[in-house]
Amino acid sequence: MNGLVEEILGRIESAREDLAELALSLGNTYGPLGNEEPTARRVHEWYQDNGMESDLVPMIEGRANVVGRVRGDGKGKSLIFNAHLDTESSGPDYDNLMNAPDPNRTGARREGDHIIGHTVQNDRGCMAVQMVAGRAIHQSGARLDGDVLLKSAAGETGAAPVDEYQGMRYESKGLGTNWLLEHGYTADYAVIAETTDFSASWIQCGATYFKVTLRGRNMYTPRLERPGSIAEHPNALVRAGAVVTAIEEWAIGFERRRTQDTPCGTMTPKAQVGAMRGGIPWRPNRSSPYAALYVDVRTLPGETIGPIQRELEEVVRSVDPHAEVDVFMSKAGYGADEEEIRPLLDAIATSHLQVRGEEMPVRAEPAVVSMWRDTNVYNRVGIPALTFGPSRGKAAVQGTGSMELGNMIEGAKIYALTALRMCGSEA
Hints:
The protein is an alpha+beta fold. Helix content is 37%, strand content 21%. It has a 7-stranded mixed β-sheet with strand order 1-2-6-3-7-15-8, sandwiched between helices.
């Protein structure tokens, strides 16, 4: 390794406590989905305090992005590192309906070398990792041929306007990343900084949200008349229960039929009913004349949603012939061309071997390949992108798992070496 590389890696290694402090600070900044500006300002201030160039990029009141930059001389390729500011919704809807601690208020904590908390796992831990990597390059005075952009984007996690929840406050899945691209913050390649257990995925699922509406009649309990079939029942909630069962059975087959192997790993497009509405909780003496189900369906890259909607409609209407099925969000999945992504993939693999002393995993776990991530925004517009980052431990249930500090330091070193390789200063 040359002297420049040794200096940059040394700066990152000596920043262990600084990285932990930054991850905790970001993780404990209250900035839920739809109100990411407080966290964005914290990121912007950190760049300014460390003598780095950065832009605070507002969208609407309460929602903003940040872009840090290490400038090159414009002669070579440029690279984006992209993390997201939002973690989860917050407020009365979450508190009353999720029956779980609000991760935005729970925040993050440290136990030894483990940083615990959903805000850090998704995604402010990887954000801190990319920030520390960028600072090490900046402080080293490395002369780059191309720019390194460090994006902190609002509105990545799953949300969409529906019913009375309208407007930009509820827009997500690529909102901030797309906004930044449309306002000139672009590059030749992009790394989506998310936890992947040091594997890479350049192919991701799409996501479509459906609303299923069922209608019935308002009947007082003593006057309730139960017909012979579910389809004729006056209570829309009763029919909704049967529809939930039918959708769940369909979803199991949907996943099984559509699971496929990709160069990144196994892709398993899943579906589930995630929410339900109907009736007046404090007045259950009336059958509900209205019920609504909200369904998340993951799709294969590049496919149209029409055939899937017709399939779902057939399932729903086998229970209730008059049910309505509407789409209220549809974001397609994309994959990078393997030849076009190869330079970035090779740079990460070489950096991984250099830092961790072992080959990068060839395949990512199915959940990583089967998610919607901001990778889709870049691959959609022809910027080869992949998602790559350290581990979050076993965190299938929100709030479990952790990020290990040594693991994060390794991630920062891999990010820095990848930037040097891609932007013209060979590592």
